[in-house]
Design goal:
This protein is of the alpha+beta class and about 200 residues long. Helix content is about 20%, strand content about 35%.
């Protein structure tokens, strides 16, 4: 049974069932698995600690600030920041931390992030639609959401990151092909890390 607890930094490994799930479901490369960490409407940001198998509170947003949609990660991937790739999942309503959702990728918000120590690196945000969702079932690309909503999503990440003493700097918006390519690269990075650990 997964438990809630307070925050420590994630220590990536492939030992837990959630992080060991395949990135793509069914082998077609069309459906991606997403593990939800933080749900729509929450002012608490949760991170999965796969070493202990628990969800921890990593950040508490100020009054009035909440996550606009469910937020989680793609298992069996690794990004430049050392964590699994981040995904914002559009769907009719919130789920719960630890829920695994089959999703369609509709694009990626490419961004650089400056850390508290001044280091910068890529920290892109994948955008997906839950496979069984009704409200967003017609959306195939980020452009299908309309510019105002995508801008609001970018601004959420800018403000949320600033509250943590960091800087999120959007670079551009790309479609589902670029999002799938990013996941494949993340899968290769995760596999390379597993190989180094086995060596």
């Amino acid at each position: 049974m997964l438990r809630m607890a307070r925050s420590v930094e994630r220590r990536p490994s492939s030992n837990h069932a959630l992080t060991a799930l395949p990135a793509f479901e069914g082998g077609s490369g069309e459906i991606v698995n997403v593990v939800i960490e933080t749900v729509q409407g929450s002012c608490n940001k949760f991170k999965f600690d796969d070493r202990r198998g628990v969800f921890r509170v990593s950040t508490i947003l100020p009054t009035g600030s909440v996550f606009p949609f469910d937020f989680g990660f793609v298992p069996s991937t690794l990004g430049e920041d050392g964590d699994p790739l981040d995904v914002l999942v559009l769907m009719d309503g919130p789920t719960f931390p630890g829920c695994v959702i089959e999703c369609r990728l509709i694009g990626v918000i490419e961004a650089r992030q400056r850390e508290r120590d001044g280091r910068t690196g890529r920290n892109d945000r994948l955008i997906a639609v839950a496979r069984k969702d009704h409200r967003y079932r017609h959306v195939a690309r980020l452009t299908g959401l309309g510019d105002p909503l995508v801008t609001e999503i970018e601004e959420f990440f800018v403000n949320y990151t600033r509250l943590r003493g960091k800087a999120f700097m959007p670079l551009g918006r790309r479609g589902p092909k670029a999002a799938k390519s990013l996941i494949r690269k993340g899968m290769a990075h995760a596999e390379a890390r597993r190989g180094r650990r086995r060596a």
